[in-house]
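One such shown below:
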Amino acid sequence: MVRLPADQLASAIEPIVRQRVPGASQATVVNWTPSPGGFSTETFLFDLEGLDDGGSLGLVFRRPPEFQILPDYDLRRQYLVMDRLATAPVPVPSVRWIDAAGGELGAPYLVMDRIDDVVGVSDVPPYHEAGIFAETDDAGRATLWNGCVDMIAAVHRLDPQAYRLGFLGDPAPSALTRFLRYALGWAYGDKAIHPVFATALDWLDAHDYTPERVGLCWGDARMSNVLYRHDLTPAAALDWEIAYLGDPAADVAWLLMTDWISSPLPGNAQAPGTPTRAETIDRYEHAVGHRIGNIEFGDVTAPLLLAVAMVRLNRRFDIPGVDLADVCARRIEVVLGS
């Protein structure tokens, strides 16, 4: 199979959507636009105009990136998570179809409905500096943050078995540690792993445990993966490519870690109005109805997982004198007090 260049996708997918989307037999693909977010998946937004009823439809196209930042990328995994959560009380995008074999466009891809009339929080530039989070007041920042916490809690209240999510794998913390060790080795290739990351992996081995609860972990639980209504309440949860089964406390740790990592404020401080770690955990515990799990373990796994992507981006951009993964090492040093 030959992977189609991005500039050929819009014309190539038009006859496919005419066949696959009911009432779109004469529709045209317009407004084909790359999504500004993330490197983990190549994403395009587009419209179908000229539907049989005279209307239009907003859709999203996603395929694996040409340069992978995480190993063993599985588009079908995220498709199945969203498809099986379609009836859940957690709002996710409605998936239309997937070509898992990649025969139609030279690479696997999926198409899902676009969610319109919403706003998002950006990662670049940091949401602390620009966009709705920076531009609102302290109360607005608390509303955005708490909305993300509430979405995380809603995910964790789900019964993974009821939604047939057992395919997400071994929920043991030791399985996550093994994956991180493998993934960092894959990312570094023939280079030595950063000594702080090696120390952190050894710490995880020494602090293995049996979770009190196992649930669906969103995997990438952060404000930029929540779509918000204009009143700043959460509307949908996005980006399920690294969803897994495990101790749900890891998602709260991920939220706290990504906020710290992205903060340009002195000492990586939270923006004014943002609830503290203790307040975040308290709100989460009230929302799920029980105490949080082993968040300290998640405090270590979170920057290690992000480091995999950062090490890969080092290879992609090759900026002299810059190590994008260094901030992950600094976070681990803060967490472990070293």
